[in-house]
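Hi P.,

Sorry for the delay on this. The queue was packed all week, but I finally got your sequence through. Input first:
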Amino acid sequence: MIAGALSPLILAWIIVRGHRLSWAPGELTMVVGFTMITLIGYNGIISRPGDTFGIGLDYGYWLALLASIAIAATGFLRSQV
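Then the structure:
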């Protein structure tokens, strides 16, 4: 998940440096975004933290899920250009 959080910075570095890519711009961003949606959704819905440890879903979970949806949507829109 850390790699997914850092992916916008890494991909921005690739664009700024002008590296040639073997894939269309935005495709990798979209794949990373969908992977993060899946991982965050799994951690919050299927493998939900229990109440016994005092751990629950707070605003950070929803913020991370929203950010990963934004990354996937941005990658999708970028790949359509």
